[in-house]
């Protein structure tokens, strides 16, 4: 009897220990989505982390590849979001890919990394940023980190007015990176941003809620336009009748 109780206690303690490890891993796991229109810049971040990872696994779907890795003792889920602007994909397909990406990040995305070059932003870069905000809504702002890729550490003077304005707007969420940037430095910034957000993330439900709001707003706008047009037509009919009456 005592032996049985002892085994049960050991099993319970082992199960409790495993649960605590799982809970701990969930706490330290960071879900990071790399976005932007420049494939080379996005590839740079992925390679930067992969080269420093002690272990990793990959999960491929029809729309995105998820890499799970341990970097500097931290578990990272790294996903790369396809370019949202200047693509042959329809709006429905873009939404499907976006939703697919979010669904692979449980409980949600802690940080979106938007990479841009240090030199003058092209119209494509600007349009990509606008498209990201259009699809994800303004609620993505607190989870967005802007990474400005530099050739070296001393190229700040080359920034154009648009980039400087972007830095002013995002403030502490804007950082410079260069070929010699250490992964540990980048992870510290990501971790700090997550802590500033008190661990909150951009979830699938957040995305769906915002899409629902847009649909409701568009439907209300359509009804108002239809009603205004109808009232305008009725007014035109009344004026026409009045003209006919006066003519006779």
Automatic annotation (TrEMBL):
It comes from the Eukaryota. SUPFAM superfamilies: P-loop containing nucleoside triphosphate hydrolases. InterPro entries: G_AIG1, GIMA/IAN/Toc, P-loop_NTPase. Belongs to the TRAFAC class TrmE-Era-EngA-EngB-Septin-like GTPase superfamily. AIG1/Toc34/Toc159-like paraseptin GTPase family. IAN subfamily. Residues 52-215 form the AIG1-type G domain. The lineage of its organism: Eukaryota, Metazoa, Chordata, Craniata, Vertebrata. One of its GO terms (molecular function) is GTP binding. This is AIG1-type G domain-containing protein. Keywords: GTP-binding, Nucleotide-binding. It comes from Triplophysa tibetana. Pfam families: AIG1.
């Amino acid at each position: 009897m005592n032996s049985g109780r002892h085994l049960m206690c050991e099993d319970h303690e082992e199960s409790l220990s495993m649960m605590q490890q799982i809970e701990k891993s969930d706490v330290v796991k960071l879900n990071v989505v790399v976005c932007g229109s420049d494939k080379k810049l996005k590839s740079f971040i992925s390679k930067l982390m992969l080269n420093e990872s002690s272990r990793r696994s990959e999960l491929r779907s029809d729309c995105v590849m998820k890499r799970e890795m341990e970097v500097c003792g931290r578990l990272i889920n790294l996903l790369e979001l396809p370019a949202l602007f200047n693509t042959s994909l329809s709006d429905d397909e873009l939404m499907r890919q976006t939703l697919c990406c979010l669904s692979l990040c449980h409980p949600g995305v802690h940080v979106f990394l938007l990479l841009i070059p240090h030199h003058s932003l092209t119209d494509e870069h600007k349009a990509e940023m606008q498209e990201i905000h259009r699809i994800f809504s303004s609620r993505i702002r607190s989870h967005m980190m802007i990474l400005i890729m530099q050739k070296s550490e001393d190229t700040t003077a080359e920034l154009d007015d648009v980039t400087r304005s972007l830095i002013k707007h995002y403030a502490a969420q804007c950082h410079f990176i260069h070929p010699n940037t250490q992964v540990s430095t980048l992870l510290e910034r990501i971790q700090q941003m997550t802590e500033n957000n008190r661990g909150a993330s951009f979830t699938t439900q957040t995305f769906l809620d915002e899409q629902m709001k847009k649909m409701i707003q568009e439907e209300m706008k359509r009804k108002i336009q239809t009603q205004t047009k109808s009232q305008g037509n009725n007014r035109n009919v009344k004026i026409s009748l009045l003209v006919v009456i006066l003519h006779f």
